[in-house]
Design a protein that fits this description.
Distance between the termini: 13 Å
Radius of gyration: 19 Å
Number of domains: 2
Order of helices and strands: HEEEHHHHHEEHHHE
Largest sheet: 2 strands, antiparallel
Strand content: 5-15%
Length: about 180
């Protein structure tokens, strides 16, 4: 388990004790940063395991189908604009074509599952994650945009990260500090 810790305390022993306690309890550490810009009150930042991700199998199954049919025109537009997937206008025919497309090997089904989890599920699109290719932090929504613009091996480099996000096994910084410490 990885911890993100930024506690600019002047006493190294206290910083060490905080880290030891966090590692001992095996819970995400919510780090408190002293305000550098003169803002009142501390600013919270943490890393937690992401929540709300769904695998491609969910989106092609009965529950996923129900969610997509609830948002019929919108999900088809998302697939067309993000993945250039031209789906039929009839909802059931569109879903069947989508189901077949999601069975293809590669990064596209994983990326589509993440995009759908953000748009119609409980995935926090504003959560930040470490980009293993660019070596920076990006929101999950920005990651979808980045990866959808790539092809071939460039896109495949993200497959492991996307699988971990869809399996809720990746550490992220939530967009809302109130999500810190919640498992």
């Amino acid at each position: 388990m990885r911890f993100h810790m930024e506690v600019p305390l002047r006493k190294p022993r206290l910083r060490y004790l905080i880290l030891v306690f966090a590692c001992f309890t095996m819970r995400p550490l919510c780090a408190v940063q002293a305000s550098q810009a003169g803002a009142s009150g501390p600013e919270a930042a943490c890393t937690v395991r992401n929540r709300g991700g769904q695998r491609p199998k969910f989106w092609t199954g009965g529950k996923g189908e129900d969610v997509l049919l609830e948002h019929d025109a919108a999900w088809r537009k998302l697939m067309k604009t993000t993945f250039h997937l031209a789906l039929p206008n009839k909802p059931q025919a569109a879903f069947e074509m989508f189901r077949k497309w999601m069975q293809q090997p590669g990064v596209q089904p994983q990326l589509a599952a993440l995009a759908l989890s953000i748009a119609y599920g409980d995935e926090d699109g504003g959560a930040a994650v470490e980009d293993p290719v660019r070596h920076d932090r990006a929101t999950l929504s920005a990651l979808v945009t980045r990866v959808s613009a790539l092809s071939g091996a460039d896109a495949e480099a993200y497959k492991g990260l996307l699988e971990r996000l869809n399996d809720n096994k990746e550490m992220v910084t939530p967009s809302n500090p109130s999500a810190c410490g919640k498992e």
